[in-house]
């Protein structure tokens, strides 16, 4: 058999060639193909490809492919198009669901701020305030059974407005008086014997004072400050072994500092008398206020002594945990077995309060030049006593982990205690009621709102400090701001706080109007500061030691405010005469300023808990600190070059941060829908703003006073009524210490880096 060659000259297999030729001629194969395609007629359809003679000669075989039906092809195209459009619809549905529905919840889950502001202006009620004020006028000394009854009553009242309210109880080592006696040259000056039960009304005493029975010469040391002892030494007086006679300072925390200084200078005891002789200039500003003691006037009678705590707040707050109370090792700040008298925060010498009449009798003897020999006996009853903090919570909807905290004092020395502290408690009660009505109207805070009523504040802010001790980690991580709600004793508005909150407070004070004087609260604030000779350059003072903001600001670095309305003729402070009659005759007579306080704090709560970007402004902080350094010295010859250089960096960065922050605030205010980028920027900014104040915490604390961690503000070493900026550098012994300056400069640069990291500013 002859083999055929292909075009390349290769031989084809005869079997293969035969089979391919046969397949083109065999009709059976066509019949089989028709069977394989029953829908097509093999005799009528046109072949798409047909073998050519050349291909047949080459032995090539071809499969004849059927042509697709045009109608079926069109149907397939429509199916693919429908599938594509369905996928597109699903994709865009998911996109618009996230962009509109979820953003609607992000922005519109609560009633608009404008509606909430209008409700805040309408809800606070003077009759409701008066009812609450009268409810709190009861005996509620910390640790007493009556204090627990008052706490339960407040909890029940709050639960009518908010759902989550609890009483947080803990035991602390507190004292009540048992026996006091003062003899001078054999003459009985003061003697009091306490009743057998602590539940009965006590006489004036010093909280956390030491027991003792001492005898020695009595020496008048004036206000009992460091400068007074220096002056006595210059005039040849040796106070070692003497009993110090001290003029009482009404500011809380001062009594403890005065007694501690007496101990440091070698005194064996201290007698502290209340001086009612206040400057007559204050009377001239109030011609309608009689210059007579209560009840004829607002001033303290000569027979009335003043209660006080002798906890030395200039060194910090030492919480006297009772032995049964155990804290986690990471949060405990003091030994549970320490007695207050053995603590560096409390003096170990006895101290007794005196009235002006009792003090005057001793002063007359010392003025005669003769030796005045005194004997004093002070006996206390120390015991583990329960204190009760009330803590309520309004959960946040969008950022529930972050929270703002509002707190007030609840305990009091006496069965009256109106200015101290029923006024603040009534304001807080009305604030809770106002927020409860807002909740019923549809208001929902973005961040959680925590409300607290503190016990044992008169003992030295022990209730708030103890609560901070137990919640340090949570506070450090999540707290955004703290507001201390003070009393409303008159028309003089007083604000203390962090510079971060200064701008917000100024703006809101311009929106709150005093109906009595027909001016904005901001204008009245400026007017009253001028009358008192205070600066207008900085309207808000640093946080003093007479309120419960101390542990939150100075220990935890939480931006804080302390607000109050004061009277310049409140002459019955810390006495039995702090009652409702004094309030309605000489204080806030119609509770107008109580209502203003509720409105102001409610507005602060609204913005701090609901604004998309926290209304905290680091640029104000940086420029305030720069002003401080400029006041102390010319910047070119500053004694703290590293600190000044770091402050310039922080001022520059915070200015850029403020511009970007303002831009994003405008975007949230103008736009109806927010991009992911804008929300991400807001989240980054809020994290930086919430932690900004914390960057100023020095782990080593102030030199000699490590309890105070805040490096930018702190009490003066010599006079704790004065709050100094950069206190570690302001102490005379540390002005030229390069290690301290370097440490503070590093803290300022850390704050600078925090702002740089929040938004790409460099």
Distinctive features:
single chain, alpha/beta, Aminopeptidase, Transcription Elongation Factor S-II, Chain A, 12-stranded mixed sheet, 24 helices, 18 strands, disordered N terminus, Zn-dependent exopeptidase, membrane, transmembrane helix, transmembrane, TFR-like_dimer_dom
In short:
With 762 residues, the protein is α/β, with parallel strands linked by helices.
Write out the CATH superfamily name of the largest domain: Zn peptidases
Beta strands, count: 18
Distance between the termini: 91 Å
- Poorly predicted runs are 1-26, 28-50, 54-58, 99-108, 278-287, 324-342
Biased composition (Basic and acidic residues): 23-32
Domain Transferrin receptor-like dimerisation: 643-719
Biased composition (Basic residues): 43-61
Pfam families: Peptidase_M28 (PF04389), TFR_dimer (PF04253)
Task: Explain how this protein is built.
With 762 residues, the chain is an alpha/beta fold. The protein has 2 domains: 498 residues, Aminopeptidase, CATH 3.40.630.10; 141 residues, Transcription Elongation Factor S-II, Chain A (Up-down Bundle). The chain has 24 helices and 18 strands. Strands 1, 2, 4, 5, 6, 8, 9, 10, 11, 12, 13 and 16 form a 12-stranded mixed sheet that branches. Strands 3-7 form a two-stranded parallel sheet. A two-stranded antiparallel sheet has the order 14-15. Helix 20 packs antiparallel against helix 21, helix 21 runs antiparallel to helix 22 and helix 22 runs antiparallel to helix 24. The longest helix has 39 residues. The N and C termini lie far apart (91 Å). The N terminus is likely disordered.
């Amino acid at each position: 058999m002859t083999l055929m060659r292909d075009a390349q000259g290769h031989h084809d297999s005869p079997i293969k060639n035969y089979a391919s030729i046969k397949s083109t001629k065999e009709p059976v194969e066509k019949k089989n193909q028709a069977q394989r395609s029953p829908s097509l007629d093999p005799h009528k359809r046109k072949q798409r490809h047909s073998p050519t003679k050349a291909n047949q000669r080459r032995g090539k075989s071809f499969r004849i492919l059927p042509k697709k039906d045009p109608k079926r092809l069109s149907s397939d195209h429509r199916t693919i198009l429908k599938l594509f459009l369905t996928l597109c619809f699903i994709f865009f549905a998911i996109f618009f669901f996230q962009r509109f529905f979820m953003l609607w919840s992000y922005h519109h889950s609560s009633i608009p701020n404008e509606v909430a502001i209008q409700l805040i202006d309408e809800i606070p009620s003077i009759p409701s305030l008066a009812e609450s004020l009268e409810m709190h006028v009861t005996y509620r000394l910390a640790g007493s059974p009556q204090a627990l009854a008052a706490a339960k009553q407040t909890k029940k009242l709050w639960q009518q407005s908010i759902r989550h309210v609890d009483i947080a109880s803990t035991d602390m080592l507190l004292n009540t008086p048992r026996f006091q006696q003062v003899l001078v040259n054999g003459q009985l000056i003061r003697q009091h014997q306490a009743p057998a039960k602590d539940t009965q009304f006590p006489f004036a005493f010093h909280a956390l004072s030491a027991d003792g029975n001492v005898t020695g010469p009595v020496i008048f040391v004036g206000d009992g400050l460091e400068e007074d002892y220096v002056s006595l030494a210059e005039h040849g007086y040796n106070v070692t072994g003497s009993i110090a006679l001290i003029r009482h300072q009404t500011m809380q925390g001062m009594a403890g500092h005065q007694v501690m200084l007496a101990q440091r200078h070698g005194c064996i005891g201290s007698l502290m008398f209340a001086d009612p002789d206040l400057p007559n200039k204050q009377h001239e500003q109030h011609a309608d206020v009689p210059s007579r003691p209560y009840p004829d006037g607002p001033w303290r009678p000569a027979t009335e002594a003043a209660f006080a705590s002798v906890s030395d707040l200039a060194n910090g707050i030492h919480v006297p945990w009772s032995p049964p109370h155990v804290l986690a090792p990471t949060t405990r700040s003091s030994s549970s077995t320490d007695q207050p008298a053995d603590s560096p925060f409390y003096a170990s010498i006895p101290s007794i309060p005196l009235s002006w009449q009792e003090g005057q009798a001793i002063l007359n003897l010392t003025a005669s030049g003769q030796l005045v020999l005194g004997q004093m006996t002070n006996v206390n009853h120390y015991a583990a006593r329960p204190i009760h903090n009330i803590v309520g919570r309004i959960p946040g909807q969008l950022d529930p982990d972050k929270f703002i905290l509002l707190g007030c004092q609840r305990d009091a020395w006496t069965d009256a205690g109106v200015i101290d502290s029923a006024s603040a408690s009534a304001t807080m009660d009305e604030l809770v009621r106002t927020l409860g009505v807002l909740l019923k109207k549809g208001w929902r805070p973005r961040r959680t709102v925590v409300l607290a009523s503190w016990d044992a504040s008169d003992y030295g802010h022990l209730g708030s400090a103890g609560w901070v001790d137990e919640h340090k980690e949570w506070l450090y991580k999540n707290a955004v701001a703290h507001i201390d709600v003070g009393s409303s004793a008159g028309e003089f508005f007083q604000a203390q706080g962090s510079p971060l909150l200064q701008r917000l407070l100024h703006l809101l004070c311009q929106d709150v109007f005093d109906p009595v004087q027909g001016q904005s609260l901001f204008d009245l604030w400026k007017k009253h500061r001028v009358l008192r000779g205070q600066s207008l350059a900085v309207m808000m003072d640093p946080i003093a030691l007479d309120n419960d903001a101390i542990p939150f600001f100075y220990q935890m670095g939480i931006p804080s405010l302390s607000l109050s309305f004061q009277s310049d003729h409140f002459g019955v402070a810390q006495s039995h005469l702090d009652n409702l009659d004094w309030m309605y005759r000489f204080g806030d007579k119609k509770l107008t300023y109580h209502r203003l306080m509720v409105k102001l704090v409610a507005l602060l709560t609204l913005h701090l808990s609901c604004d998309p970007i926290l209304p905290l402004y680091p640029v104000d902080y940086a420029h305030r600190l720069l002003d401080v350094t400029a006041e102390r010295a010319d910047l070119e010859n500053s004694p703290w070059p590293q600190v000044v250089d770091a402050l310039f960096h922080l001022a520059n960065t915070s200015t850029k941060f403020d511009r970007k922050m303002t831009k994003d605030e405008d975007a949230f205010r103008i736009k109806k829908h927010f991009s992911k980028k804008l929300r991400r920027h807001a989240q980054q900014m809020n994290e930086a703003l919430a932690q900004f104040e914390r960057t100023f915490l020095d782990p080593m604390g102030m030199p000699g006073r490590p309890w105070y961690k805040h490096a930018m503000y702190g009490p003066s070493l010599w006079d704790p009524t004065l709050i100094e900026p950069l206190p570690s550098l302001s102490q005379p012994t540390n002005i030229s210490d390069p290690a301290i300056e370097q440490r503070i400069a590093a803290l300022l640069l850390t704050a600078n880096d925090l702002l740089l990291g929040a938004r790409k500013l460099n």
